[in-house]
Write a structure and sequence with these properties.
Elements: H1 18-26, H2 35-44, E1 85-92, H3 111-114, E2 122-131, E3 135-142, H4 147-150, H5 160-169, E4 171-179, E5 194-196, E6 204-206, E7 211-215, E8 234-236, E9 241-246, E10 252-256, H6 271-276, E11 309-312, E12 322-324, E13 336-339, E14 345-350, E15 354-356, E16 358-363, H7 367-372, E17 381-388, E18 393-398, H8 404-407, H9 413-418, H10 420-427, E19 432-433, E20 435-441, E21 446-451, E22 493-498, E23 507-515, E24 529-530, E25 536-541, E26 547-551, E27 570-574, E28 580-586, E29 592-598, E30 604-610, E31 644-650
Parallel strand pairs: 7-12, 24-28
Antiparallel strand pairs: 1-31, 2-3, 3-4, 4-5, 4-6, 7-8, 9-10, 10-11, 11-12, 13-14, 14-16, 15-19, 16-17, 17-18, 18-23, 20-21, 21-22, 22-23, 25-26, 26-27, 27-28, 29-30, 30-31
Length: about 650
Amino acid sequence: MNNTADDKGCNESSNEHFQHILDARLSRRGLLTGGLAAAAALSFGGMDALLRAVPASAHERRRPLLGFRGIPVSDADTVTVPPGYTAEVLIAWGDPLSHGPAFKQDASNSAADQARQWGMHNDGVVYFPIIGSQRGLLVQNHEYTDDGLLFPDGIASWSQEKTNKCLNAHGVSIIEITKRSGFPWDRRRRRGDWDVVRPSPFARRITGMTPIAIGGPAAGDPKLRTTDDPTGTRVLGTLNNCAMGFTPWGTYLACEENFNGFFQKTMPKNQLENRYGIAPFNSGLRLFTTDPRFNADVEINEPNRFGWVVEIDPFKPNTMPVKRTALGRLKHEGAWVQETKDGKVVVYMGDDERNEYIYRYVSNKPWRKARLLGINPLDDGILYVAKFKSDGTGEWLPLLPSNPALAAAGWSLNDILINTRGAADAVGATMMDRPEWIDTFPESLTAIATLTNNNRRGTTPESSNNPDGSTAAGSARPSIDAVNPRVNNVYGHIIRWFYARDFSEPTFKWDIFALCGDPADPTHGSTIVGDKYGSPDGLYVAPSGRLWIQTDVSTSTINSGTYAGFGNNQMLCADPGTGETRRFLVGPKQCEITGVFTTPDEKTMFVGIQHPGETPTEAPNDPANPKAFSSWPDGAAGSRPRSSCVVITKDDGGEIGS
């Protein structure tokens, strides 16, 4: 997510051996797919989706986890990686997914073109194997747009065509990719390089105009019904998709985050709108001028149809995505799925705004049993919110109508799922410093989460989210506490929590993995062991247990003010056992580094480079000077910067980070 601590203003109150393949089928990272993918899995190891992530302390390693030389900070307009590694653009905004039109450098592609092209501002990403680490599907979110770059004349003369193109640049992209063999029939003979497969039967866009079902307990609720959908069970599109997750049954989870900025609201706000930050037009998006569903004065329930986790089957292009309401309505940063020992699924979710909460969902039945009964495991379970205690313990508070704090006010289950923030306020959850990405170390029963920053923490006048849910989003000024220990937390931190027996337990212990900032500057109070960084956002535990950390310093403060000397946004790798952290990648000017995933063998890594060249004010770029802040990745040959997915390999063919 790309926002400053200041403007996070909506709760103002992160071909293998066959035995490995069989093991992966039982792990939380094994994927069950159909058709071509399943056939390939049985023959070549496609089922080895992602092996268990094992922390370094869990077993003896012959070599340390971190084998590369850390790189210095940089403010160059390029992607920098350590010596011995290569980073190349795999696909960029506007490139065709399969059959489709090429990108026009003057941004004159039509809305219909954009619906067949890679979307703008890519974010969370997952690689789904078809043939192990050689061929697979890459699925990536598109969080938002810069309409100054999206059109030749920017935001001038807004029209229905511009609304459609903007909506089509949002959502999710699915492409098929393959690793070059170098064999004689490989025309380009580029052994080890990756290419997009064109055409591909799997290539697909899910956009802000794609029909999507509403599933789970809240489907059909009166608060989800609109003029165009009186049933409350079908919505057009998914928007502002940030981080992601994936399920053991082989589906992708896209997470709707700052949906509030898409809506216009001029009439007095009700409490629900206030709690989620629906506000007068101020985001730069002009969708409401041509599409009345984005005018919340006209369609008061349309905002309630966003803020959900969207399930997509990448191997079945003709299936309709589904918004899973049992997971609650938040500004979802991600939805990380962890299988328990008894086969249930736990989904960890952060609500990315100042003073919001960390959630988990636990399915009622083991996922295999549920699916045999025709039940989606994400529709039948219990939603919880975290309470962190000062003694280093914590508990998960159930968000159920039977919870005394909710029963007293007459909350129904649908009330809880549609106004999840208000329900969390009522039960007394712990207000956090912008909870973002979450991942797990399955073997050590550990979860880890990034808390990006919070410039309101510990400031005056002190205030908390009201238990009646009436606090305006992002407005509170909570005091410091044990798990959020810094006043004006501009650098952010990373926390962990641990279970004794399984991820479904109601209680846990927690600690702080790192207080971010510059460890060489005592005034920062940083506990980093190694290279400095701040505003941690993206997070990924690789199969080996390497911990990858990505940063989202606002474009208004990149390499300036409190971040002077930090350079451009970056990605680091940490040893979770020792805490040692080394800088691995630095991005181009004004970008965010967000989205990271490896192939199962960890010899290829996919990294998202989002919004290179974004303006310091985060306003749309000037279409008369689109390269004012960056010309990456096309350089002199291009006319504007383009968000891209980058593929990273090690020159000697080894694991990334080794």
